[in-house]
Amino acid sequence: MNSPLLFLSGAGLPAWIWDDIRAALPVETSVAAYPRAGSLRDYATKVLAEAPERFVVVAHSIGGVIGTQLVAQAPSRVLGFVGVAASIPQPGQSFLGALPFPNRLLVGAVMRLAGTRPPAKVIRSGLATDLDDEQAARIVKEFSPESQRLYRDAVGDHRFPELRGYVQTTADKELPAALQTGYAANLGTTSVRSLPTGHLPMLADPNALAAALQELL
């Protein structure tokens, strides 16, 4: 696959998390910038405005929701789709709606009260659980809150491209492996690679993630 890769990061995460992966892949790559405000459609519209004409999505975490909306809004531009510990809702579902009960109620209530930037302790113990101290500190410092609607807006009707795969993180405290199995099924792929990392494999084991992506693509 020689088409450009468009990386869609998880909520609040800076573009540099993909640096090692991008350096290891022999194709053109870019990392999408998010507006940090507005609806899910606003997020997807901004990404599309700055993306290559046609591209393969590599989506991490809630980036899977944005990627799914890209497929709904511009199906002819998305040539492939790989999820990396990614949330993949069904048509008409949101990120929250794709969580199991009662998690969706609990997470939704916490965000409504406290916003979308978790406390530093929570970021360290969940998102950055298997990172070294320097990486974890940088993630905490540079984490940016996202729009509430990114989590609450439903994705549009869509059909994923033929090329699709999923990288599952089996030590993940943010999106447990069993939940990711369901998301891979929503994507409609049996091409799954498993890595024994937490939620940020691009930092915890970039070589393994780069190899998995090359296999899937």
Shape: globular
CATH superfamily: Alpha/Beta hydrolase fold, catalytic domain
| Mean pLDDT over all positions | 96
Per CATH, what is the topology? Rossmann fold
* Number of helices in the DSSP assignment: 10
Category from helices, strands and their pairing:
alpha/beta
N-to-C CA distance: 6 Å
| Adjacency order of strands in the biggest sheet | 2-1-3-4-5-6
Q: Compute the gyration radius: what is it?
A: 16 Å
Q: Report low-confidence residues grouped into runs of 5 or more.
A: none
Proportion in β-strands: 5-15%
Structural summary, described in words:
This protein is α/β, with parallel strands linked by helices and 217 residues long. It is built from ten helices and six strands. The radius of gyration is 16 Å and the shape is globular. The termini are close together. The model has no long low-confidence stretch (mean pLDDT 96).
